[in-house]
From TrEMBL:
<dbReference type="Pfam" id="PF04168">
    <property type="entry name" value="Alpha-E"/>
</dbReference>
<dbReference type="InterPro" id="IPR025841">
    <property type="entry name" value="CP_ATPgrasp_2"/>
</dbReference>
<feature type="domain" description="DUF403">
    <location>
        <begin position="526"/>
        <end position="838"/>
    </location>
</feature>
<dbReference type="Pfam" id="PF14403">
    <property type="entry name" value="CP_ATPgrasp_2"/>
</dbReference>
<dbReference type="InterPro" id="IPR007296">
    <property type="entry name" value="DUF403"/>
</dbReference>
<dbReference type="InterPro" id="IPR051680">
    <property type="entry name" value="ATP-dep_Glu-Cys_Ligase-2"/>
</dbReference>
<protein>
    <submittedName>
        <fullName>Uncharacterized protein</fullName>
    </submittedName>
</protein>
<feature type="domain" description="Circularly permuted ATP-grasp type 2">
    <location>
        <begin position="102"/>
        <end position="477"/>
    </location>
</feature>
Amino acid sequence: MALQGRSPSARTRTERRNVLLAGYRPLPGVHDELIGRDGQVRPQWEPFLAEWCALSPEELIQRFGLADRHVHDTGVSYRVHGDLDGQDLTAGERAWPLSHVPLVITGAEWATIAAGVAQRAHLLGTLLDDIYGPGEMIANGLLPASVVTGSADYLRPLQGAPGGGALQLYAADLGRGPDGRWWVLQDRTQAPSGTGYALENRLALSRAFPDMFRTMNIERLAAFFQGFRAGLVASSKRVEPRICLLTPGPLNESYFEQTYLARYLGFLLVEGGDLIMREGRVHVRTIAGLKRADVIWRRIDGDFADPLELNAHSALGVAGLVQAVRQGSVHIANGLGSGVVEARALMGFLPALGEKLLGEEMILPNVATWWCGQPRERAAVLDRLDEMSIAPAFRSAGGGLDTGPVVAADLPPRERDALRARIEARGMDYVGQEVVRLSTTPVFQNGHLEPRPMTLRVFAANTPDGWKVMPGGFCRISDEPDARAVSMRSGVRSSDVWVTSDAPVEQVTLLPTADRITIRRVTGTLPSRAADNLFWLGRYLERTEATLRLVRALLGRLIDADVTNPARPDTVRRLANILVAWGAAPNAKGLASKGRGPAVGKVSPALAQATAALYDAAEYGSARANVGEARRTASVIRERLSIDAWRLFGDLLRQLTLEPGRQPSEGEVYEVADRALKTLAAFSGLSQENMVRGPGWRFLDIGRRIERGIATCRFARHFAETTAPSDGLDALLDLTDSQITYRSRYMVGASLQPVLDLVMLDPYNPRSVAFQVDRLDTEIRDLPSLTEDGMLEAPRRLILKLAAECRTAEASRLDRASILLFEQLLMGVSSAIADRYFLQNSGPEGSRLTGIA
């Protein structure tokens, strides 16, 4: 007998179909993507429904779980403007709201959409060339000058510059009217977002429903990205250009997408501080000196790109970038001034401009728009105000519409009168648009399908073969059944767009053909900012491990209360004191202020301190706080970390989260610390076995080695005294994970000199200070040098000095002062590395042009 859901009978399929469609009622007066006017399912949806109905409800939920886990495990997220909580880079991140039901469109219908979007991209690109070039459209009266100059996105310094408004990537937000025709709701030319999210939607649903992609012949997306990348390469003057994706940084709403695209396309993710102008060219600050940037795909607004000639308050751009554009030494995609054609004020003029510039009628009309900067149009809008949607004519035009378009009829009388007065006083800031009734598409809700309004974002890329349109895009779906506009905010979902083909779809990959591959063994340029974050990621992870080992050692001694060992209380006290000194746990006074003193619930101070050191994010040295810092640091270099590595941060945070008001037992705290150490060991294994031994791995390893060496020195200073009891030395061996090695070498209990030699000077013990120094010597030696005079740079000089100290020291002569010297030398190596390789070094070394490529 066949398993339920594997080979269901026709009757079972029909029953499931009836459940899915039960109560599905298209909204009156709107087009529905699933159900036609005759009340029947549209033909392109039939294969989809057939595949869904072959799955039992349990199997369907399981498939949804696969897609949701992909979103969760890969960290697909976005941020709504205003979500940021202080400077916590992970606060305010929202999981990507994936809808499990795609939008299905036939290939024949998509051909019309693609032709219309490509035509519109071509028109806007041609118009930009005219605006920043001869200005014939304004001179001939086809375009009012104030539609251009009234926009904050018109950048006067780019006038006459080659490629000042060059359009490389374009996006159109489309809506389908009641008659089934697609309309352009808005143009996106400034820095269009969403291509990465469209790709993630596709990956998530393809994981959930792999068979559907084969049986329904869904068009692939890789060819679009291949063409986009080829277009950027062709725009450069070098055969193998260095292409940078310029991001506003991790606080940006779509930062995840930017890191994802940089990794997927092989581009260098940079922030404004990573770039610098030298001799009329843009360079990337790297650990090997300044490296030329040939192409910059910007994701920042154009007026923020150059504080020297554009927005003086910007901290996101590069001083002198406009001059580099004028000289043609760098290609910017999209051009810095390209945002000027995003203005809604322009939409009413595009039909006439299309006939003039292209000699063609627009395949996809835009929603009817009247710019109130013209007397006749303003009067028409005011006469029909209750029938209009009123929107800002330009980005950041203000005028009380900062939240976007409003339907005038929905406003209270006082607000509607105030809006009318503002339009009468300064009409150029407003447009009136026809109120759009969006079409609906199905979503899965409460076990069946329901219609919800949606908009469709479609992308076009300027490739060497002309404009190429992504065969898909992404759909934004409102949870409100009467929504008339949809944006990525609370209550909105995103779905994949499936364009079907009548024939099997050709498999396309981003990899070049074998005869065109240039073999290389180096990952590429490492910006100084990325090196800095990798270095500190290593240090935060090692600090977390040290704190966890302290907690585990402390709790192990509390649980094993050896009353025959008179030194046990002193060891517990010392371990707790280290936690307090490290800022991982409060002292006795702090415990009392937090209600965790010994009088509260009969909890011992040591257990309360261990609990705080594990869970309390308010204690800056706690394991929870350090994992948070590690994740924050990793979020800035997300494009350089694997999905498995990123998933481990989430696992650690979950393990180190305690329900408010609950006091775990000694055994529970011990077990959590032990599990967290195992998770950290998994990350160490990933970095050791999976990361290429390039500069990025070296800085991660250098950070870990320095922090481990410092922690070992501090442990030794606290426990390896001349009169140290064996229990304290046992604790030192536990903290440095050296118990097994010691016991295999010595048949006696812990003794001071053998313990000191093992944890401080033994080059064969991977936990010793000497071992860390040897590894640091190797890693620092292999880092690039800025000078070619044969002289040692500061980090190398210091590490050689420290290595000599380790190799010549004797355990019998080690005391607190000599151990402190080792610790201070390690801290000096850290400072020297920061001064030499990281961005705060803006002095003579940082500005040299040695090694420019």
